[in-house]
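pasting for ref
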Amino acid sequence: MNKNIQQLYTISLKQERTIIGLMSGTSLDGLDIALCKFNGSGLSTKITLTHFETIFYNNQFKQAVKSIFSKRQVDLEKVCLLNEWIAEQHAAMINNFLSQNNIANNTIDLIASHGQSIYHAPKFLHQQSIYGNGTLQIGDGDNLAVKTDIITISDFRQKHIAAGGEGAPLATYGDYLLFSKASENRIMLNIGGIANFTFLSEDLDANKIFSTDTGPGNTLMDAYVQKKFEGKFFDEDSQIAIQGSVNESLLNALTANDFFNKPFPKTTGPELFNLEYVAAAQANAGITAISHADMMATLNMFSAITITNAIKKTVNEKSFILYASGGGKHNILLMQHIKQQLNNCIIKDINELGINPDAKEAILFATLANETVCGGTINYGKNMPSISMGKISFPN
């Protein structure tokens, strides 16, 4: 037997596995590194987060990715070079993270890498009849494995597409395994660049699992702040938006898109929701001038009502508890709007479930890697493919 296969087999039999989950989102803030201990698999999965850090990207990294991110026409050589380069940067961050925490690389069983999304192309968006759904994440798994000397599982979204999905949202799988609870209907809301949620039924029926993107989370607000306020990357504590008023004409124009009429579940990305989208809505509304504060207040409300409308349209249960995570959880005004729109809903921080809300997505990809190696037996019901995901890269 090849020694790498033997090592993977040994890992699959271990009572406890140590897995690093990585997440680099569309906001391009930085790399989330979650070091987790796993016992069991499937619905018996037990997880402990032992170390977590977000390593923020420098301007060179951000500008390099932005040069190809969500663009239909890019320098193909740049895409090719960045596929390796991003993996090298992530590997260096992992090695430094482990060194600073006095953890030897050879004590880590697996790395689970989401990679860096650069384009998401569900069929409803590209509308080319001969092609299906598509998505692309870069940050080569082989480079990560070789430069960290750790078996790496990456490129999770492709299997989902191969099995008939759109490649997102994948959080559903980990949400079901880690957060389902008898006698409590739960909504696991993640507000990243794009917002998505998973509904988990109190009777643990996999056929009732439901997950969808809802539209923009932080992406429009962040993009506007970065363009209009030099040195700012997001609206910290809603300081800008809270000074403004919602422009109803602009809000109506923002919500007048076919995406919001498309049946659930569905996925989207910054390929649709970007500053060009905002400019087009502004033109359609006949608004020639608007203050920064009013624009941010309107974008904030746009994210809130598209999130809550999606929940209202798809979740029939009269009572549920909503657990929030992602960067948007820290947006005070956004969370106030969501609470007002879901006035009968109890909203809790996912911290109450023992999970750092900023680490959640990295943890969920570590969970997918755990399933790939020693699980893969769970039926996820009729609403999502019952599959294991990820490509395996060996260090040597």
